[in-house]
C-alpha cells in the first residue's frame, strides 16, 4: 500500500497526525506531491520529518519559491511568508528540497503537484480525460488543496487533499492510499490550536491561521473539484 500526501505547508501538527494514521495502515511507501513549505510556522521541521522517513517529494510551487529565491507572482502575502521562511530554513534543508522531482511516472500511475501543462503550478479544478497523460490510467495531483476521486471513463483522477491547509470545507488533514487498483481517501483530526499557537507566537496575523478551523483558503473561500463538461 502506498500513501499519497500533499500540501503540508509547514503545518507540523497536521503532518504528524497524518503520518501516525499512515503507520497504522501499514503503508510501505509514502509519496509527497509537494509544497512541504509555505503558509505555516514549522517548514524546517516538516522537511526534517520527511527526510528522516525517506519520503520522496515532488516539487511544489511554494517549494520552488524557497529553492529559487523567487516570490509568488499572485500573492504579496505568500511572498512575505516565503521571505520569512528563508530565514528559518537551513541551507541543508533547502538542499534537500532542491532534490525534489518534477513528477513521477510509475508505469500507468503518474504523480504531479500541478498538472501536465505545468507540473509546478497548474491548478486542476475541472478535470477531463485530456488532463491525464496519454500513458496514465491514474493521475494523482495536489495544489488545489481539495480532496477528490473522479472516474474519467477508463481513467481516474485523485487529489489526496491537503495535509496542512484543506480548502474543501473540511478542516481535517487529508491524504489518500493506493493498494493495487483501489484508491481510498482519508481524513484525520489534528490539533489546529497547536498550529495556530505557533503562528501567533511567531507573529503572524490571525487571518493566516483562522481559515484552518473551517477548511478554507486564507480569506475564507472554499473550493471544489469537478469533472469538466463535455
**Element order: H for helix, E for strand:** EHEHEHHHEEEEEEEEHE
Strand order of the largest sheet: 3-2-1-10-11
The rounded Rg comes to 16 Å
Runs in which pLDDT lies below 50 for 5 or more consecutive residues are none
Number of helices: 6
Structural class: alpha/beta
Mean pLDDT over all positions: 95
Quick one: biggest sheet? 5 strands, mixed
| Count of extended strands | 12
What is the helix content? 25-40%
Write down the overall geometry.
globular
The amount of beta strand, in percent, is 15-25%
Brief rundown of the structure:
By secondary structure, the chain is of the alpha/beta class.
Detailed description of the structure:
- By secondary structure, this protein is of the alpha/beta class.
- Helix content is 28%, strand content 21%.
- The chain is built from 6 helices and 12 strands.
- It has helices spanning 12-25, 43-52, 61-68, 76-88, 91-98, 192-202, and strands spanning 2-5, 29-32, 56-57, 104-106, 109-112, 126-127, 138-141, 148-152, 155-159, 173-179, 182-188, 226-227.
- The strands form 3 sheets. The protein has a 5-stranded mixed sheet. Strands 4-5-7-9-8 form a 5-stranded mixed sheet, with no helix packed on it. It has a two-stranded parallel ribbon with strand order 6-12.
- β2, α2 (43-52) and β3 (56-57) form a beta-alpha-beta unit.
- The protein is globular.
- The termini are far apart.
